[in-house]
Design a protein that fits this description.
The protein has 22 helices and two strands. By secondary structure, it is mainly α. It has a two-stranded antiparallel sheet.
């Protein structure tokens, strides 16, 4: 048995190193760059459009994005919140800290770059998702990468492969690892037994996902804004308490990104390639642009114009990475808990942060908050981790549902939901690092068929974008996608 586990671990290591390695990370960037160039840097040149459609539209009188009268759809805002529920997760707290610990401050710059380009990849995914979605026998919208792979390319075999990867990833990255984070966090900070946490999480998740996308969306539209705003406010307080260190923090990020030695506090030991790999992979892993995951929930929106939902995708990446991840990075770099020289020395010595006695992950972020709030700071981070992880479970449960429905039909959904709920207990009470590692690989492999599809269907995205902009400029359509005439 040990030999079998050893072989599985070895094979998974090779596959994981490929899918999250340099070749695939360059593929992620190139696809985002292609859409950025072909749309003439849409995320910058049309920033007024996508901000009006998304964040700013929430505050407009008589807006149609917060609620929907369609009983088979969710609102545009609910689709955003449900997508953010899956993307704004533990990675925004621990993942950024890991990137800093293993790749240096320069990793943050490359994280920003991957997010900047990823905005347009996510835009393309959601635009195609709305174009090719359809209604199932219950009248609910069904869309996702597997749908535009089959209907747009005619490659059902690739769509099936994507769906299999998605289901497996939903059990691991979307469930087991999140439950483990919640249970460990509550146990270490508040002494709550892991089995009690498991039962509570199972109950809460069960009550939500049994109600379908409508109930999931109604929960996420309340939880996601609350947890994101609360975390950002806490982060701003820490940054404000160390406001004098902000220029130096940005100096470290930019100098280390290009390996300018000691200029501005740069850490030469990490090197450009290390910073690039850690930053880009963290950006992709955090906002999931290119994985084809969030398009499943965006496709359930009541929106009519594909380009409009695409712009919600741009804001999704912006909110997740440019805002939340940046807050975490600045909290760590400004608070003084990050000793750049020590992490650099550990890297040069071939040691992990733990082997060198250095903090990483949640512990590093907790220390940064505790530097201002004291013990309350670490408890605040534990609660944030719990909320972020819980919302991720909800988001990924829906992704898994859509993939299961595609593979086996609606009749298989009750079985999937039951298994998904039961697995939470396992994740909260067992150390399943190999399972999580394998599911991380499946998570990454979702990107391969998706990126191939959006690349081959890119012409359609560009045409829909040009047509939409032309109609808006001609006054035939409002920015929100509603016909004027």
């Amino acid at each position: 048995m040990e030999k079998i586990i050893e072989i599985i671990t070895s094979v998974n290591g090779v596959l994981n190193n490929f899918i999250w390695g340099p070749i695939m990370l360059v593929f992620f960037l190139l696809v985002g760059l292609m859409f950025t160039v072909r749309t003439k840097v849409f995320q910058i040149t049309h920033i007024k459009y996508w901000l009006d459609v998304t964040f700013l539209s929430i505050f407009k009188k008589g807006n149609k994005v917060l609620r929907t009268d369609d009983k088979h759809s969710i609102s545009q805002f609910q689709s955003l919140c449900t997508a953010l529920a899956a993307t704004i997760g533990v990675g925004n707290i621990s993942g950024v800290a890991v990137a800093l610990a293993l790749g240096g401050p320069g990793a943050i710059f490359w994280m920003w770059l991957s997010a900047f380009l990823g905005m347009m990849t996510n835009y393309a995914e959601n635009t195609l998702g709305i174009k090719y979605r359809y209604k199932n026998e219950k009248g609910n919208w069904v869309g996702g990468a597997m749908i535009y792979i089959e209907k747009g390319l005619g490659w059902k075999w690739l769509a099936v492969l994507f769906s299999i990867f998605c289901v497996l990833a939903s059990f691991g990255i979307g469930n087991i690892s999140q439950g483990n984070e919640i249970a460990n966090g509550l146990n270490s900070s508040f002494g709550v037994p892991t089995w009690i946490t498991a039962l509570l999480v199972m109950l809460c998740v069960g009550l939500v996902i049994i109600g379908g996308i409508k109930r999931i969306a109604s929960v996420t539209e309340k939880v996601v804004p609350f947890m994101a705003i609360t975390y950002i406010i806490g982060a701003l307080i820490v940054i404000g308490a160390n406001i004098g260190n902000v220029p130096a923090a940005f100096g470290m990020i930019f100098s280390n990104a290009f390996n300018f030695g000691s200029v501005g506090g740069g850490l030469a030991g990490f090197g450009i390639m290390v910073a690039m790999r850690r930053g880009i992979s963290r950006g992709v892993f955090s906002n999931e642009a290119g994985l084809g995951s969030s398009v499943m929930v965006h496709s359930a929106s009541d929106v009519k114009e594909p380009v409009v939902q695409g712009m919600w995708g741009i804001f999704e990446v912006f909110a997740d990475t440019i805002i939340v991840c940046t807050m975490t990075a600045l909290v760590i770099l400004c608070s003084g808990v990050y000793d750049g020289a020590a992490y650099e020395a550990a890297h040069l010595a071939g040691q992990s942060p733990a082997e060198a006695g250095l903090l990483s992950g949640v512990a590093l972020t907790s220390a940064a908050f505790a530097s201002v709030f004291g013990t309350i700071g670490s408890k605040f981070v534990s609660i944030a981790v719990m909320l972020f992880a819980f919302s991720t479970i909800l988001g990924w449960s829906y992704y898994g549902e859509r993939a299961v429905e595609y593979l086996f039909g609606l009749k298989a959904l009750p079985i999937y939901k039951l298994i998904f709920i039961l697995i939470i207990f396992l994740g909260c009470n067992a150390s399943l690092s190999l399972v999580v590692d394998i599911s991380d690989t499946f998570n990454g492999f979702m990107a391969l068929p998706n990126l191939i599809a959006v690349t081959l269907l890119s012409g359609q995205v560009i045409e829909m974008t040009k047509d939409y902009i032309k109609r808006v400029k001609a006054g035939k359509e409002t920015v929100s996608g509603d016909d004027v005439a």
